[in-house]
Amino acid sequence: MLKKAFLILIITFAAVAAYAQTADEVYNQYLDFNLARLQGETDKALTLGQDIIPNADKLKDNVRNNFYYSIGNLFENDGQSVKAIEFYEKVAAAVPNYYVVQRALGYQYLKQVDELTKKLNATKSDPKENKRIVGLYEKAIKKTLPYLEKAQACDPNDDTLALIKLLYRNIRDTQALATLNTRLSALSKNCVDLLDDK
After folding, report:
1. How far apart are CA 151 and CA 192, in angstroms?
2. Repeats (TPR): which ranges (predicted)?
């Protein structure tokens, strides 16, 4: 009986050890993922990236941030906004001055604003439901704007600026609109345009 228990314990340990990946193995997978992505092999890169996700914590911080941005971008291009947002948010939390991910998040959240705009129009005949949607709409805009503002501050774009102003007008926030230039000036002080993956 004791031998049997010992044998089961050894087999279990061997199985766990065989399953666990080392940091070097995960990094090698990351290199394969990057190569596939750079060669335009999107499906392969997406599959490799999904294999890395459970072990991404074994990557160095800079490499992990780069990976999260890249896999988020692949999810975005694959029409998987929810997954894209999940990984973009990780990058934004780790490198808040990386305006590229800020812009990506702003435009992902803008999709939610657009969906709520459609619902606003569809609920005009139901005042109670319309009021509820208006609340969600305003909340979605307020979530979107900080990301767009950081992107605009670091990489000015007439279309983004016009969009920011439109969103503030849509929620009737004249004070935020009046102080926009001051905020953009402050946000432009610390901008990161490339992620280091070394």
Report:
1. 10
2. 65-98
What's the pLDDT tens digit per position in 16-60?
444 456 889 999 999 999 999 999 999 999 999 999 999 999 999
Q: Are 142 and 171 in contact (CB under 8 A)?
A: yes
Q: Are the CB atoms for 151 and 113 separated by under 8 Å?
A: no
Q: In the block, which residue shows the tokens 């926009």?
A: 180
**Residue 123 vs residues 76, 100, 114, 118, 133: alpha-carbon distances, Å:** 29, 35, 14, 9, 8
**Sequence-ordered list of residues with C-beta below 8 angstroms from that of 103, at least 6 positions apart, any chain:** 147, 148, 150, 151, 155, 160
Neighbours of 192 (CB within 10 A): 15
Condensed to tens digits (0 to 9), the pLDDT of residues 152-180 reads 999 999 999 999 999 999 999 999 999 99
Q: What is the DSSP letter of 144?
A: H
Torsion of Cα atoms, 108 then 58 then 96 then 133, to 10°: 30
Compute the distance between CA of residue 198 and CA of residue 191 in angstroms, rounded to an integer.
Answer: 19
What Cα–Cα distance (Å) separates residue 61 from each residue in 57, 67, 100? 8, 10, 18
- CATH code of the region 13-92: 1.25.40
CA gap 84, 108 in Å, rounded: 8
Q: In the numeric block, which tokens belong to residue 67?
A: 């990976």
Number of Cα atoms under 13 Å in the Cβ half of residue 3: 0
